[in-house]
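Severity: low
Component: inverse-folding endpoint
Summary: output formatting inconsistent between runs
Steps to reproduce: submit the following structure tokens with default settings.
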């Protein structure tokens, strides 16, 4: 089968060998769990518990704050200790519900909305909404909203984004290897919501065992197939993946649904399966703790709200990291405080050593055009960055700066180590703010 791909992109050091063969390890949190009311795109959730309340594992503690929002559930049993502002991995302060874990893990009784065979598409979407499922690949867009496009009959493909192109990350890979049925059933449920859709598992070809496993599992399923995609960063970016799988193109002002596609990441589809079939809310995810500074890189099954420090304490450090990144080195962001909670979108903690970071000192542009060659959006990053440095918003917009997907390829390839992505990202943020106003 031909491998799908896109123009541009890079082949960074993968770093996946550090953790890819480590089976998922379950960790039980100690002490308090912290639940930010904003861990998704859209309106913050509204707390429905008070300080002193006893809560159970799986009990709703915050209601969705609007149509584009998601409820939040306690992932342990215990007592609501406070509702206060806490710092998140992004550095932002956010209202959080703090639950003191009693370490008994007493659960509410989970039950599906209806027997699966009796469920309509609307019932399935309602179950996903009620469970607080959001895009767990990093975007945090509420999945029920994604499953509710204006014209559901025009959706041709539901794509399971199994590429995991971000260096170092192996959480999706471990899910695929250890719980393939969970993912496949999640995809089947998502496909069943759209009358004319078929499902595609898009898997990078550096995961041949996952490709073989899903080919075997889907060989008798008519409307689901496996599409190997070329191992190249950012293959898993939504626009690149849609192009690689279907040949269809979208720009920054379009949604995947405008091209007849719905794209969901691995953990998200597993959460969809649990929500619809078991009535279980989103309470856990797989997080990779990795990097050359980590003693035992691991993939953890984490109860959302667990402190990052607890995970790193378990994995251990063999040297002081020069840089700790929430996520991977391409799309993640540096964090300076480990006392922050894991959220629905927390995929990894990457601890880099001094040597890796030392190579990143910027110098003057040498006009080599390598940033142009690798840009998957076919932009001219050098000129965009120049426009930002001269505060020339018009030139930035005229050169389609808003089409940047912030993949980081230009910064990665630049021999002068210019902070191209950071500059472009900053200007995009300003422009997006203006659009909102
Ligand atoms: S300009 Fe944007 S899309 Fe192009 S390589 Fe740089 S970060 Fe990626
Ligand atoms: S890759 Fe760096 S040095 Fe080369 S043209 Fe782009 S900005 Fe300039």
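Observed output (run 2 of 3):
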């Amino acid at each position: 089968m031909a491998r799908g791909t896109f123009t541009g992109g890079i082949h960074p050091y993968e770093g996946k060998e550090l953790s890819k063969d480590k089976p998922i390890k379950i960790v039980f949190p100690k002490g308090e769990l912290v639940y930010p009311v904003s861990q998704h795109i859209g309106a913050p959730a509204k707390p429905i518990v008070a300080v002193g309340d006893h809560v159970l594992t799986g009990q709703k503690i915050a209601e969705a704050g609007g149509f584009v929002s998601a409820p939040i559930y306690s992932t342990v049993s215990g007592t609501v200790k406070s509702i206060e502002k806490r710092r998140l991995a992004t550095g932002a302060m956010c209202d959080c519900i703090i639950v003191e874990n009693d370490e008994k893990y007493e659960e509410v009784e989970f039950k599906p909305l209806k027997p699966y065979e009796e469920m309509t598409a609307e019932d399935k979407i309602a179950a996903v909404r009620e469970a607080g499922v959001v895009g767990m690949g990093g975007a945090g867009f509420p999945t029920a909203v994604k499953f509710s496009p204006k014209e559901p009959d025009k959706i041709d493909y539901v794509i399971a984004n199994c590429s995991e192109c971000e260096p170092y990350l192996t959480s999706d890979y471990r899910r695929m290897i250890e719980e393939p049925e969970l993912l496949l059933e999640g995809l089947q449920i998502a496909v069943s919501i759209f009358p004319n859709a078929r499902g595609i598992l898009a898997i990078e070809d550096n995961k041949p065992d996952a490709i073989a496993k899903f080919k075997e599992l889907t060989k008798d399923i008519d409307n689901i197939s496996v599409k190997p995609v070329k191992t190249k960063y950012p293959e898993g970016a939504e626009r690149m993946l849609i192009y690689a799988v279907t040949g269809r193109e979208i720009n920054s002002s379009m949604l995947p649904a405008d091209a007849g596609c719905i794209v969901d990441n691995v953990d998200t589809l597993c959460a969809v399966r649990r929500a619809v079939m078991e009535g279980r809310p989103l309470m856990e995810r797989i997080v990779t703790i990795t990097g050359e500074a980590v003693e035992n890189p691991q993939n953890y099954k984490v109860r959302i709200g667990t402190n990052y420090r607890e995970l790193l304490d378990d994995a251990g450090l063999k040297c002081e990291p020069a840089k700790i990144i929430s996520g991977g080195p391409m799309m993640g962001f540096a964090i300076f405080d480990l006392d922050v909670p894991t959220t629905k979108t927390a995929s990894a903690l990457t601890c880099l050593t001094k040597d890796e970071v030392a190579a990143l000192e910027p110098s003057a542009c040498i006009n080599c055009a390598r940033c142009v060659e690798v840009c998957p959006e076919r932009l001219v990053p050098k000129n965009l960055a120049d426009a930002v440095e001269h505060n020339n918003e018009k030139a930035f917009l005229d050169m389609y700066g808003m089409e940047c997907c912030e993949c980081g390829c230009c910064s990665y390839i630049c021999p002068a180590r210019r902070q191209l992505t950071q500059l472009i990202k900053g200007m995009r943020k300003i422009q997006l703010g203006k659009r909102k106003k």
